[in-house]
Amino acid sequence: MADLHCSIDADGVALLTLDVAGKSANVVTDSMRIALADAVERIAADPAIRGAVITSAKNDFMAGGDINAMIAFFDTLTDEQQVYREISRPFTEVLRRLETCGKPFAAAINGAAMGGGLELALACHWRVAADDPKVLMGLPEVGIGLMPGAGGSQRLPRLIGIQKAVPLMLQGRPQTAKQALDLGIIHAVVLPPDLLSAAKHWVLQGDAVQPWDRKDFKFPGGAAFQRAEIGGFFNLAATSAAGTTQRNQPAPVTLLSAVARGSVVPMDAALRIESRLFTQLLMNPVARNTMRTMFASKGACDKLARRPKNVAPLAIKSVGVIGAGLMGMGIAQVSAQAGATVVVIDASQAQAEAAKQRLADGFAKQIEKGRMKADQADAILAKIEAASDYARLGDCDIVVEAVFEDRKLKREVFARARAAMRLDAILASNTSSLPISSLAEGVAAPERFIGLHFFSPVDRMALVEVIRGHATSDATLAQALDYIKLLRKTPIIVNDSQGFFTTRVISVYLSEAMGMLTEGLAPALIDNAARQAGFPVGPLALIDDLTIELGYHASCQYRSDAGAAWVEPYGFRVQAKFCEELGRKGRRYGSGFYDYVDGRRVAWKGLSEVYPPQAGPPAVEAIKSRLLYIQALEAARAFEEGVISDPGEGDVGAVLGIGFPGYTGGPFSLIDTVGIAAFVAACEHLADRHGERYRPSAWLRARAARGEAFYRRAAAA
């Protein structure tokens, strides 16, 4: 059978080996589901077959649902019944038939069993896993806006109890084989060579009835509503989920509902409840947007889908970093972790060595907390050389500049670096806003010059914005992408402009928040509204943490560069007042938009004297819309100008790089979800009320008039 190989041994045990054609990992496809259904019926009907072992021919056991297929399926949605019939129920019914067919099934888990893969294993009567680090198990669907849809939300609580199962599903954290054994998810862990024999041994003497199908079955720890303790657990979990997600993500609460409602009815009824609730989530824009951005679009970026063709890959063995500050040492760390040797250059040998020592001290703290092993830290540090002599850059394949955002300083650094580097080596700037083309002026080999905008902290932030200057060659772009892939980070490609893409988008967000102070809105109101909209931290608290003067200096630099073309940002005068008149430059200085007392952030009582409070402040929803829409509008402007050429990359960049709320899918997904015509109309209203910065361009208005969404397939649906 395609996708599933079946063999019967002399003892009458069937071996079903998953091997979905055309896929690097086993996923639930229609053909795989049909093949499994046929195999189950054959095993059930043949008296010579005593039972079956399910395993995989691939490195994974099964990865779960085919997310690409689900994303494509969104374009065909017509009504809930269609989705219910075609997506949710068929695989659930196959698994239910498997566990009730009267023959014992054992899962021999040889690799990762995630999502639908674990659901398949849970439907088997016995589960054994190989003692191998690659064997991980989990139900991570909540992370993409869904919930388990093939019985996982019902079988796992019946197996290990609600209080153990629910956190595993809400957090989606993978469990190792030994952790799964300790939790009771699997029955045994054996050495990899013994996996199939252990599974077969059980089948020959195993019981073909699941615990929950026995008449005397009782929920481990109790079902929902049967014990006050369980009811309290659900209330606490629901409150926590609502607080964590600000009620923007329906999946956690829907999952809790499925578990609670399903726990007080028989399994078949519970599975119908799960399927219905899964369908509701599947049809919700949150799931569509999250899957499209964080799976399809991010996956394309990670695979370097837009890498220029016919350019030989660059094997990067040696990396140079100029500037041993927080960003520079972060770039050095991830480069060394990826296996490259690294030379870090700073103004003096003592400064460079002190920076390396700070990195070592940070590692020591992680080792003390059990988050890192000493040999890992030693291996990274051994690959990093601290130096002040630019001649040490002579053998580097790529050199990344990470000094202060000062054009004159950067040009001095570029000249010294180029004088020491091989002419064919790549020179990159980690600038967050200065145009790459202007930085490249006067630099030798400008075709080998490119922007690589890392995000802080570098070791934890996945995104790198790759900025192509006017002179940057295809080969340089392609090989810079090779470097980002080596670091296991996600690149987006943008064309040159002031602020590129991510800085442009977040700048209007921060500027709008600062400008709102002049309207008499309190910082706490603005920041709380932002968090409720899904931003990880309020904009004014973020500015205080970064320091107000940092953005003010950047704005002044842009004003100098742009000359007469400069348009004053909405929040610029607030920056100037706080930095130049009030001397409140941010948290580092002890005061900013807030006061800081004993390390705590508290309201500044003197703000009302600077900006009198507004009578009857606006609704939080109005503030949320402004903070979301001003960024989406700027993203659209960047697309119009050709700075970003793919909405998927823009969405990935906004979510991963600047914390744009993930449930929206990103600014372009947000516009499509609202509807481009409705979005433009809302921006027109905001422009009339708050200023021309909200006014949509003629290009965007024309696009709205045509009903042309940024994701064209969605527009055609």
Describe the structure.
With 717 residues, the protein is of the alpha/beta class. It folds into 3 domains: 209 residues, Alpha-Beta Complex (2-enoyl-CoA Hydratase, Chain A, domain 1); 180 residues, NAD(P)-binding Rossmann-like Domain (Rossmann fold), CATH 3.40.50; 117 residues, N-(1-d-carboxylethyl)-l-norvaline Dehydrogenase, domain 2 (Orthogonal Bundle), CATH 1.10.1040.50. 50% of the residues lie in helices and 12% in strands. Strand 18, helix 18 and strand 19 form a beta-alpha-beta unit. Helix 5 crosses helix 6 and helix 20 packs across helix 25. The chain is globular.
The profile of the biggest β sheet is: 8 strands, mixed
Which value, in Å, is the CA radius of gyration? 28 Å
Structural class: alpha/beta
Instruction: Please give the share of residues in helix.
Output: 40-55%
Strand content: 5-15%
**What is the CATH superfamily classification of the largest domain?**
2-enoyl-CoA Hydratase, Chain A, domain 1
CATH class category label of the largest domain: Alpha Beta
Number of domain units: 3
* Net shape: globular
